[in-house]
């Protein structure tokens, strides 16, 4: 019984080591990709999205400084925040685009209804 518990603990420990956190470079790349995605959909043109995009860029710069200072864990968390803000900027930009398309569709419907009267 005791041997089974020890084997289970060793296996769990090995699995825990295998499930490591992404390296700084991986998290940095993911953050940069999220920022580029937000830029490509025009987040800079939407004030609410642009604010989060700027924040994401600032957080990436802070993460670089933290990493250079040897604060790797803090740098990782800062990159996670940057990615989250970039994804929020992307969502706001997509929302604004969908809203604009919805308004255009409503205007077309109203124009058609007006012609049919």
Structure, explained:
The mean pLDDT is 88. The chain is mainly alpha-helical and 117 residues long. It contains four helices and no strands. Helix 2 runs parallel beside helix 4. The chain has one domain (23-116).
Brief summary:
The chain has 117 residues and is mostly helical. It is built from four helices and no strands.
The figure for the number of domains is 1
Mean of all residue-level pLDDT scores: 88
The largest β sheet comes out as:
none
Give the overall shape.
Answer: rod-shaped
Q: What distance separates the N and C termini?
A: 85 Å
The helicity comes to: over 70%
* β-strand amount: under 5%
Per DSSP E runs of 2 or more residues, the count of β-strands stands at 0
Q: From the helix content, strand content and strand pairing, which structural class follows?
A: mainly alpha
User: What's the helix count?
Assistant: 4
* Sequence stretches where pLDDT stays below 50 over 5 or more residues: none
| Cα-based radius of gyration, to the nearest Å | 23 Å
What letter string, H or E per element, gives the SSE order?
Answer: HHHH
């Amino acid at each position: 019984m005791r041997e089974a518990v020890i084997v289970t603990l060793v296996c769990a420990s090995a699995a825990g080591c295998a499930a490591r956190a992404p390296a700084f470079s991986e998290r940095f790349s993911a953050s940069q990709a999220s920022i580029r995605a937000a830029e490509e959909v025009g987040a800079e043109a939407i004030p609410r999205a642009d604010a989060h995009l700027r924040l994401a860029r600032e957080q990436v710069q802070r993460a670089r400084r933290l990493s250079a200072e040897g604060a790797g864990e803090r740098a990782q968390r800062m990159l996670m925040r940057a990615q989250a803000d970039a994804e929020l900027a992307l969502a706001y930009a997509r929302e604004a685009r969908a809203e604009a398309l919805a308004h255009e569709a409503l205007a077309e419907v109203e124009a058609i209804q007006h012609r049919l009267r």
